[in-house]
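Record 1 of the preview.
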Amino acid sequence: MQLAGDNVFGPPRDRDEALRVLRAAIDAGINHIDTAQYYGPGVVNELIREALYPYPSDLAIVSKVAARRDAAGAVLAYDEPDQLRAGIEENLAALGLETLAAVNLRAMDGTRPGKRFDAQLAALVKARDDGLIDGIGLSNISIEHLRRAVDQTEIVCVQNLFNLADQRSFDLLEECIPRGIAFVPFFPLGWPRGARNAILTSSVLADLGRLLGATPAQLALAWLLDLSPNVLLIPGTRTRRHLIENIRSGRVRIDDTVRAEMGRQFPRVQSG
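->
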């Protein structure tokens, strides 16, 4: 989402660099890209296609549906069953694909896990049965959404807000682990343009990072990877410099002492 303009709307500040970021990611071995047609809208999917088509055979492009942008950039619900189908088809057309590796059903704020949710889920099941998507994911959900969904169909991934400073979805992560469901934290470093980002400005992370030869961002991403093998990272980036920094977080090894210190500074908060 950082490849679009400010507030994920309009063209990027530097289109050529955005294309270079995508190509550099693939060259570095990245094979999972998270996107959405409403990023831009349409801007990011067009960049992905221009930069990477024809796509590597092992590249998993994952999108999400249930929202759209108006002319002013506001995010609006687009989550009726027929709109979800249209959203999938719009992604496929923009990306030049016949099938998406997975599509996340994004629960709009306030959506409850009831009959309406069941109808939305059924629309994605139909899209999977029709060969438009390989897997169904869920985003911005509660643990009740997940439990209701897995009673109806296979869920391959869950994408929720989760990072060191905001661990309210920890119970959801733990629910995914025994089910073999990938957990994909969005905003893994906090809101990227917040006035005071608790992670990136943490003196504790800076001190620990110096001991490990890592930046606070790399340490925070390494902490997420350390939680469980089913965690997949999607840290957004606008530049190749940040891309390299993010990728190198995979080299950071957290021991018990560092893990405990990070836990003291960023204690787990249970949801609800």
